[in-house]
């Protein structure tokens, strides 16, 4: 249970800090500030709860770890539950602070009316590729031959860069839980489009996990 509590708290923190920066301070800090909020949240949690649960705080990361042979199917599914509940709790707290869900709560999306108005195909490709790269960094920086103590920095910096590149494309998910939480409260288009932010990160995570499982990226 301590691992599940850690995953719950970590995912809550990621949504509250990252989406919170977009909703409560986006006009002040801009896209770079939002990207750094997501990245720094991961760095903080990596060192705060990493020793407890590994700080996945992302169903895609847990899937990648499972495919790579680093966790059991049972543990993966329990992590998924804790992560989604944490994201929902984080989005709920943000909605209370923001005074409602009119802001969209940092929900992901694509198409007409959403940020850069990128197409479905562009959003799908972005989320698959970026999740695969993100999982590769995570598995590589925490696996055999990695540098102890630096994984949190590598992972957080990678997430920040992904946001710098892609906020205008999809708002950046690479994390189904992070997408589900805000979408549940925002409803409408955000909820109708959340399927992509479950499917695409899962595909990307499987690709990243398979590269390690197959030995293609063996240290």
TrEMBL record:
<dbReference type="GO" id="GO:0015250">
    <property type="term" value="F:water channel activity"/>
</dbReference>
<keyword id="KW-0812">Transmembrane</keyword>
<protein>
    <submittedName>
        <fullName>Aquaporin Z</fullName>
    </submittedName>
</protein>
<keyword id="KW-1133">Transmembrane helix</keyword>
<keyword id="KW-0813">Transport</keyword>
<dbReference type="InterPro" id="IPR034294">
    <property type="entry name" value="Aquaporin_transptr"/>
</dbReference>
<feature type="transmembrane region" description="Helical">
    <location>
        <begin position="150"/>
        <end position="170"/>
    </location>
</feature>
<feature type="transmembrane region" description="Helical">
    <location>
        <begin position="190"/>
        <end position="212"/>
    </location>
</feature>
<dbReference type="Pfam" id="PF00230">
    <property type="entry name" value="MIP"/>
</dbReference>
<dbReference type="InterPro" id="IPR023271">
    <property type="entry name" value="Aquaporin-like"/>
</dbReference>
<keyword id="KW-0472">Membrane</keyword>
<keyword id="KW-1003">Cell membrane</keyword>
<comment type="similarity">
    <text>Belongs to the MIP/aquaporin (TC 1.A.8) family.</text>
</comment>
<dbReference type="InterPro" id="IPR000425">
    <property type="entry name" value="MIP"/>
</dbReference>
<dbReference type="InterPro" id="IPR022357">
    <property type="entry name" value="MIP_CS"/>
</dbReference>
<dbReference type="GO" id="GO:0005886">
    <property type="term" value="C:plasma membrane"/>
</dbReference>
<feature type="transmembrane region" description="Helical">
    <location>
        <begin position="35"/>
        <end position="57"/>
    </location>
</feature>
<feature type="transmembrane region" description="Helical">
    <location>
        <begin position="78"/>
        <end position="98"/>
    </location>
</feature>
<feature type="transmembrane region" description="Helical">
    <location>
        <begin position="118"/>
        <end position="138"/>
    </location>
</feature>
